[in-house]
Give the backbone structure.
Amino acid sequence: MSDLTATTTEAPSHTKALLQLCKRLERAWSLPDILDAVSPVAEQVLGYPHCWLGVYGLKPGFVSIVLHSSQISDPAFARAIDTTEIPIAGDSMVQEIIAADHVVVVVDARTDPRTNKEIVAALDNRTIINVPLIMAEQRLGAVGMGT
């Protein structure tokens, strides 16, 4: 099969997944609803097994990971991620995400100079993608996904 044919046959399924995501997000009334809408697309369409929701301002000076969805088999590790507080000061990547009006992509968190290497090692991150959540010009947090 040529690359053109593969791209053409994948396009309808990606469009369908995007439309389904939009419908689920329209019905999202809570933080868990947002993550429940994004997680299947992150995993099934984009291939990222981990998805999280970080919120700004719950604890001053920190980004709070309030929800996490993944294939983690260790419940203690999953709970530890759900209670992660990431300090904003001195963390170039977090500062970029907070100020961003675009998707922030880190190809390899282990070598990217923007990442906090302690957190990367603790969570065993590699690829990290964060989409800022902005509503009425207020920065609420970010939906993240990665490996």
About this structure: Confidence is low (pLDDT under 50) at residues 1-8.
